[in-house]
Amino acid sequence: MKLILLSLLTGALLYLAFSKYELWLFAFPALYMLLRNTNSHFWLLSGFFFFFLSLRCANIASIDYGGVPPLLSYSIFTLFVLFLALYQFLLPAWINRKLFKGSPYAAVLLYVLFELLRSYVPYGGFPWLILGSLLVYVPLLKHSLLYANVYVQSLLLLSAVAFIITRKRLQLLVLFFLWTFLSLLAVYEKREALKHAQRIKVALVQTAVEQADKLDRERFKKHTEEVLRLVEKAVEGRPHLVLLPESAFAFFYSEEEDEGNYRLKSLSFSVPILVGLIDIREGLKPYNSAYLLKDGYAADYYDKVRLLPVGEYMPYPFGFLKDIFSAISGMDYVPGDRIKPLRYGYVRVATPICFEVAYYDMVRRLSREANLIVVLTNDGWFKDSDCTHQHFLWARVRALENGKYVLWLNNTGDTGVVDMDGNVLASLPYMKRAVLFMEVPLLE
Known about the structure:
Layout: H1 2-18, H2 27-36, H3 40-55, H4 59-65, H5 70-99, H6 104-118, H7 150-165, H8 169-195, E1 198-206, H9 211-214, H10 217-221, H11 224-236, E2 241-243, H12 259-267, E3 273-281, E4 285-294, E5 297-303, H13 321-324, E6 342-344, E7 347-350, H14 360-367, E8 372-377, H15 386-402, E9 406-410, E10 416-418, E11 424-427, E12 434-442
Parallel strand pairs: 1-2, 2-3, 7-8, 8-9
Antiparallel strand pairs: 1-12, 3-4, 4-5, 6-7, 9-10, 10-11
């Protein structure tokens, strides 16, 4: 019972660090307890409670919008959480006990190794709730993300706790000196880049369409008029670029006979419009794409490359689930084959779509030649929950890692602007249909 209670406390503290309450300091006592006690059962239970509490909001999508009975939804979810706990917590602890006799330093290396592995394997991985992402809350040290990515930060964070446990004061001082040096260097580099940056005015449109309506095409179409009025309002503000979220309208990009589509493209004669739309090409192949519209046509476009398992395609051998759950019975999306920013004049925009923002390498490749990062997403599946907050946290991480502004375009909220220091400069309230105007620098 003592082990269970201690595991529950550890998992709950880790959950609170990643929750929308942003109690990030609670991660330190949790990590201290984990590295002090490398018992495999303790790690497994702590990981199970951590993932269960942090990800239980995923059931909103399956129950409220997928039509899955709550008991079945939570049963499947529990199996998924157990898999994550076995993968991320039990395996490192078990290997550590077998090969390294429970060394806290081995625990650090093994945890980060499995954090990296689960970010890519299996089925494209699950790069979520990564310890290093908590650095966005730490004053000054957060800037070191420019040189040390989120996984390196996990290593540094856990190493600091290990040094405290083993009373290695000199090593702890050296670590913090290195951390501080990298942070100060990053601040200097970003300030220098800012001096030479061109600035543009952008208009961020939050469409605020209920997810239940988005799942019914006829109901979704009824929102077209109001959203187009918002786009017209945005255009009247004379920005350099108007932006809308993922799958912002019910029509397909190539559905030229649709009046809403015609009006949207007509508005692009006045101002370039970056919008997320679904399209059907090459027969009946659906794509989730970002289109940069100018003068009535797509000046450039990007097809989502890393699709979300179950949500956008059904991985092998789980195809039978389509026959059981109607909400996922549609056609699989087709992944794009080009990782490149959208270009128009001197503006070069990296456009990771939805879950793609969680992949460090994906965003790095997309933004290498870009001077602005724009994330198009729809978190209506999860309402105003911890899952939505955890997703938005990646905007702040990616801004710090790439030293660029990140514009977050979400159907439901919080649509907003994140500066190169990971600060949220402005955002729109949850489910408020509105336009946010902002001037942002284009950083190389």
